[in-house]
Amino acid sequence: MILPTKHISEERALLHIGAEILETLKEPKTVSRLWNDLKLLRRRNTNYSSVTFDWFILALDFLYIIGAIEFRSGYISKSEAIP
To answer: Tell me: the pLDDT tens digits for 6-54?
Structure first.
């Protein structure tokens, strides 16, 4: 689930989705704006399938647990430790 396996392709692994989320986090964003930006990013890349909102939230949880993102005043931003 976190890493790709025989049953979970690379683009559906939480690690990959988390990397895409970090790529779109150039400035603090709300959850809904981040969700829309991720969907747009995936639409541009025709090789990737769409991600469900459940997988998006799991990827956000994963990023929060490892300290890659922070949640303050309704906005998600990259942790200060992440460039």
So the answer is: 777 677 788 999 999 999 999 999 999 999 999 988 888 767 677 899 9
Written as one string, the DSSP assignment of 15-35 is: HHHHHHHHHH-SS-B-HHHHH
What range does the domain containing 58 cover? 10-78
H or E element: which one contains 76? Answer: strand 75-78
- Please return the burial class of 28, using the count of CB atoms within 10 Å of its CB with bins 0-12, 13-18 and 19+: middle
Task: State the total domains in the chain.
Answer: 1
